[in-house]
Structures are given as structure tokens and as C-alpha cells.
Amino acid sequence: MKLIVGLGNPGEKYQGTRHNLGFETLDHLLKKFEPLKDSTWDDNKKTKSLIKKLSIGKVEALLSKPLTYMNNSGMAVSLLLDYFKIVPSDLIVIHDELDLPHGKIQIRFGGGSAGHNGLESIIASIKTDKFLRIRMGIGKPLRLEGSKFDHKRSQSKEDYVLDKFKDGEHKDVRNMIKHVQKQLELIIEHGIESYMSKFNSRD
Asked: Which residues have C-beta within 8 Å of that of residue 167, sequence separation ≥ 6?
């Protein structure tokens, strides 16, 4: 079984924010692979997560949205791995990424957190970085370089990721989500190692 975790924060006030891109992607994924009447999440108290089991091709997958908030994502992921007896190498984490331009995705196996608090929490909790990450680019907040008003007019990273996408960004977000869904199908069909060697581009 593959564990596919989308990172985000629970609660209505966080819906549509950049930091909840992982949640949003899983919502779309669930609707694609399940009949609409069945595309609802199950609140699993033992893993502190919303979960849904489904089949992607011939492979069983467990989708999960942790309810422990972004900075403590590792608690839920650790509980999920233990409870469902899944090894970290079968874990796929989908998350927003400041270090990628808005609309670009990157798929990588292993490595550090690059300052992402959710990833940092997961790595610390499960004591390994050997899992797949699907990084969805949200870009960085604009800064008015050279202006003496930079400190007032520049948005902090914390505020930026918790802000909602702007009207002109939604098309790129939709395209990113579709691209991630397509890549996930390839990953599930071919396996992570084969996908990384044959299909993944790191440009």
C-alpha cells in the first residue's frame, strides 16, 4: 500500500491558502478516483488524520490529510505509518514549495526539508528522509528591492504561505494539480525507483 499525504492546516480559515496546496490536491485526487457520492473523507482518530482508501490502477493507496497542523505533520504521518504498517519508502508527501516558481512542480526522493516546517516535522518524527516528495511551486513574496520602505511593503514568508491565491494564479494552480495527478499515476504504475529513473525530470 502507498501512503499519499497532502500537507496543510485543518479549518475553514485555511482553505484556499498557499500552504494548503497539498490538501487541495488530495481533494481533487479523491474526486477523480472515487464516485462523487463516495468521495468523502473518514476522520480517523487513531492517526489524527482524514483518510480514504482507494485503488489507483491496480495498487491500493491510502490518502491522508493530517489534522495536526502543518508544523506538527510528523505526528500524524508517524501514526499512519505505524497503524497501517507502511514503510517510509512507500510514503509520498505532497506540499507547497517556496523555492520553486509558481506553477512549477518537482519530484524528488530523499533530502532535507529546505526549510519547510511540515517536511521538517515528518523527517524528525519518522527518523528518515527516504521518502518521495512532490513539491508544488508557489514562488516567494515580492520584495521592492532598493526601496527604503521594503520592511513595510514586503510580505513575510509566514504571511505569504497563509495568504490565499490571487485571482490570476488559479489557472496555474489547476494545471499544477492536474500535472501532479498524472505523475502520481505514473509513480503508482511503475514504482518509485522506475519512475525516478525513467520519467522524472529535475530541470
From this structure: none
Residue 10 neighbours by CB distance under 10 Å: 18
Active site residue 190: no
Q: How far apart are the first and last CA of the chain?
A: 29
Dist. CA 99–CA 109, nearest whole Å: 16
Catalytic residue among 19, 95, 102, 179: 19
| C-alpha to C-alpha distance for 42 and 99, rounded to whole angstroms | 33
Q: What is the pTM of this model?
A: 0.92
Q: With contact defined as beta carbons under 8 Å apart, do 167 and 139 qualify?
A: no
How long a stretch of residues is the chain?
Answer: 203
Amino acid found at 5: V
- Determine the residue type at 56: I
The predicted-structure confidence for 63-89, as pLDDT tens digits, reads as follows 999 999 999 999 999 999 999 999 999
